[in-house]
Specification:
Shape: globular
Number of strands: 11
Strand content: 5-15%
Helix content: 25-40%
Largest sheet: 6 strands, mixed
Order of helices and strands: HHEEHHEHEHEEEHHEHEHEEHHHHHH
Distance between the termini: 35 Å
Radius of gyration: 20 Å
């Protein structure tokens, strides 16, 4: 079993969350109409117990959550947070829609799907300002830019073909005949120096180097792919009726990320490895370094507005770009699926 998040996506739920399909998966409309408003409850210590469903097994990409838990930041904010790891058989969106957790992982694409299908979820913070998706090429082959990849084989998984691949086609003129299947193994790429492969910044480059290849890394976010990642979603009723609780969680998690990336991460890493024993210390160290080097969490915006910040302008511009690329339907009121009240202009950490 892969100990790391699959690079094709940040969640195991499909991008298209059609309302009919989601309701069917949950056991019918009656279940959704009777979803619990939210699950928080008080503990004997006077803390509010809440749960967070991640998109994959415990890893450094969830470091802010684990740091806030391990160092007592959540408790300082009156919270007892249960972090529930995802995995290959975990459909995060179905669990969230079934009301089994208070908060969950998502990204911009899933947020657009919530708005399109009028599903009860709202994005409240984006803890990755940059989507970690990359393409990797071999060095010394002339594949040093995305534009240079035109006409050359690119290994892309099915999910990627519905999202960032459409953007690559629209922006860089890539074509369908370049596509090759990708089954989450670097083996075919390692033996074909002309090929490029999809990946995840904090994972595949590390594995490529362990295999003796120093890859050329094309971080899509640095080329204009403005997808928010590690987006936290909540139930709209909870946002409306308990905004102070939501704010405490967002603020504490932002502090957790600041501490994880800039302080002593050992306690959080111990929790990650306890939850996911396959996660090696070298892998965690590489992932932390990559998040810092490429500014996934901390950017010029977050230095002013705080970790987790979002903006209406960026939500709109990315949606418009995806519509133009054919990756989203036009005419969706995306403002129904996110709120800036917990992050815009707030210095959380």
């Amino acid at each position: 079993m892969n100990a790391r998040m699959p690079p094709a996506s940040l969640s195991q739920a499909p991008i298209g969350l059609s309302r009919r399909r989601t309701l069917a998966a949950l056991g019918g409309a009656a279940l959704v109409s009777h979803l619990p408003a939210f699950l928080p409850r008080a503990t004997a210590q006077g803390l509010t117990k809440i749960s967070y469903q991640t998109g994959w097994l415990a890893q450094a990409e969830h470091g802010g959550l684990y740091h806030a838990q391990a160092t007592g930041i959540y408790k300082e904010h009156g919270l007892d947070v249960e972090i529930r790891p995802g995995g290959p058989q975990v459909n995060v969106m179905q669990l969230f829609m079934a009301g089994t957790c208070d908060f969950a992982d998502a990204d911009s694409f899933r947020t657009f799907a919530f708005a399109q299908d009028k599903l009860p979820a709202v994005a409240i913070a984006a803890f990755f300002q940059k989507d970690p998706r990359v393409l990797m090429s071999h060095p010394g082959t002339g594949n040093d830019t995305l534009a240079a990849l035109k006409g050359k084989p690119i290994l892309v998984a099915t999910t990627g073909r519905q999202t960032y691949w459409l953007w690559l086609k629209a922006k860089f003129g890539l074509t369908e005949d370049q596509l090759r299947p990708y089954a989450f193994s670097l083996a075919p790429w390692l033996v074909d120096r002309q090929a490029t492969v999809q990946g995840y910044l904090t994972s595949e480059p590390f594995n490529a180097r362990k295999s003796g290849v120093e890859p050329v890394i094309h971080l899509l976010a640095d080329q204009g792919f403005d997808n928010y990642a590690n987006v936290t979603i909540a139930v709209p009723k909870m946002v409306k009726e308990q905004p102070e609780l939501v704010q405490r969680f967002v603020t504490a998690t932002a502090k957790g990320w600041a501490g994880y990336l800039n302080g002593d991460a050992s306690a959080a890493n111990a929790m990650i490895q306890k939850s996911n024993p396959q996660m090696g210390a070298d892998t965690i160290a590489y992932a932390i370094g990559a998040m810092k080097q490429y500014g996934l969490v901390e950017t010029a915006d977050t230095r002013v507005k705080g970790i987790g910040t979002m903006s209406e302008a960026r939500w709109k511009s990315f949606y418009d770009a995806m519509v133009a690329a054919g990756a989203q339907k036009p005419g969706v009121d995306i403002q129904t699926a996110y709120t800036l009240q917990f992050v815009a202009g707030k210095k959380n950490a």
